[in-house]
Amino acid sequence: MSYQSTEQQAVLEAMQAGQHLADYSFAAELHQVYQTPAEPIVKSKTLYQYLVPYDEEVVFTDLTIWEAYQQTRQRNVIALQEMSNRRKLQLAQGYRQLAQQKIAKAAELRMLLTTDQRFSMTEHERLEMLTQMQRTLQESQQLTTQADELIQTSARPSWTKAQAIKAYQHQQERKVIATTSLYNN
Amino acid sequence: MKCILLITLLLSLLSKLGHSQPVFVLDKKAIAKSGENLAANLSKGRQHQKVRDFTLGVHENYDAMYALQQQVLDNLRQAETVQDLHWSDLSKSLYLATELIKSTGQPGLEIEYIIEHPFFERSPGDNYSDLFIAGSDDVLPSNLASWQQAQHTSQSLASSFHQIAAERKSYGAVAFQYLAEDLMLKAMEMNEVLKQPDLFSMTEAERLRLQSDAEEYLQLAGRLVTRSDQLLLEVTQVKPMQEKAAKTHHRLVRSTIAQTPLFNF
After folding, report:
1. Cα separation, B34 vs B29, whole angstroms
2. Cα(B1)–Cα(B125) distance, rounded to whole angstroms?
3. In chain B, is it the N or the C terminus that has fewer CB atoms within a 10 Å radius of its CB?
4. Residues of B numbered 199-258 whose beta carbons fall under 8 angstroms of chain A's beta carbons: which are they?
5. What is the per-residue pLDDT across B1-57, written as a single tens digit (0 to 9) for each?
6. In the structure, what pLDDT confidence band is assigned to residue B111 with cuts at 50, 70 and 90?
7. Residue A170 pLDDT
8. What is the domain partition of chain A in residue ranges?
9. Quick one: pLDDT band at residue B171, thresholds 50, 70, 90?
10. What is the tens place of the pLDDT at every residue in B201-253?
11. Are B105 and B114 in contact (CB under 8 A)?
């Protein structure tokens, strides 16, 4: 029976979201704040200021400054959405792997438990281990369900991503239209 | 039998004393009998010795067993091997959890910033009349100006709830992130520790169960992390604040247009 597994490592890596945020250079500040361990209250306050749609404490009188502020915020939101989606997918994959590993473990355990002279334990413990195995199988099912749910919630691209994709598609279509001659003489 | 031998000896001595002439009595039968008796007694004594040794051995074994049991109990009582693990340190979780559910400032807890709305310090009746412009017994505002004032109060009160909720959500997101990191650390550590064969004295069953516990922690950490992300995203989508932002945008655009001259002479 192996005590450490690469599957667990996969789940662990999914939780370290730093890389996801770092991929978006326009959200470098947010990444910095998100990544640095600080007093929870201070950190939450900073994150709130970065993300909230309208900050009551700041008074805007200039349109350009306001628009720049809103743009930065919007970018932060985009980065956050992408991070969340990517993390969900990665977690789903990790969960799936964990589920498979659990099934394999249960099978191995069943084989070993019914073998003579393998583990030193009483019959009670043996039976308990078998019920534990049953539970492991259930957990594996739950994990698979969780993975499916995660994939479902992150299957559609976020609004901003969809807009960007649509814009790119339009651009390509227009390019094709522009280079297509109307009359084929 | 010995007594008889002695008696005969004594008798012979007495007879010696009594009579001037010594008389030698050679009772061959008696001598043989006493020899037999002696041999039997010796063997009996050896048997007794054996029994005594055996009893002593049993006693020693029992003492050793007792000592061993005591030692096992003492060993089970020790907590040194788990003292330094992160598992035994729940202060972080406790701190975050209490911060999260805490209401108004309690003495003894040092808080610099309390996420709490003044709403909960006022009487419910006042709140009701402020939120719905007038309570059941109150008269409605008499003129337009005071009506608008009341409406404004109501709206700002309603939107301040959303703001407080958003702040709390952002705090929750950070707390969940930290908790998830903590859990992750614990799960990793548990796995590392379980790999070492001699650190803990436990059966394989216990080991396996602990390992599955560690995996559960990992799952919990995953759930917390996704929850944290979700909360942060919710902070970015507070409806009244979005409306306020839109209004601000509109106002700024209008003021910019008002200030821009149409013709530059």
Report:
1. 9
2. 115
3. C
4. 203-205, 207-209, 211-212, 215-216, 218-219, 221-222, 225-226, 229-230, 232-233, 235-238, 241-242, 244-245, 248-249, 252-253, 255-256
5. 566 666 666 666 666 665 566 677 778 888 889 999 999 999 999 999 999 999 999
6. very low
7. 94
8. 6-179
9. confident
10. 666 667 777 777 888 888 888 888 888 888 999 998 888 889 889 999 999 99
11. yes
Tokens in use for A117? Answer: 């002279």
Give the C-alpha separation, B251 to B243, whole Å.
12
Sequence ranges of the domains in chain B: 1-7+31-76, 87-259
3-state SS of chain A is: CCCCCHHHHHHHHHHCCHHHHHCCHHHHHHHHHHHCCCCHHHHHHHHHHHHCCCCCCCCCCCHHHHHHHHHHHHHHHHHHHHHHHHHHHHHHHHHHHHHHHHHHHHHHHHHHHHCCCCCCCCHHHHHHHHHHHHHHHHHHHHHHHHHHHHHHHCCCCCHHHHHHHHHHHHHHHHHHHHHCCCCCC
Q: What pTM value is reported for the model?
A: 0.66
Q: Name the residue type at position B229.
A: D
Q: Give, rounded to a whole angstrom, the gap between the first and last alpha carbons of chain B.
A: 156
CB contact under 8 A, B195 and A3: yes
d(C-alpha B181, C-alpha B228), whole Å:
12
Q: What's the confidence (pLDDT) of residue B204?
A: 66
Determine whether the interchain pair A88/B212 forms a contact, defined as Cβ–Cβ distance below 8 Å.
no
Based on C-alpha coordinates, what's the Rg of chain A? Answer: 26
**Token pair recorded at residue B227:** 């929850």
Residue B261's SS3 state is coil
Encoded amino acid at B206, one letter: E
Dist. CA A42–CA A40, nearest whole Å: 6
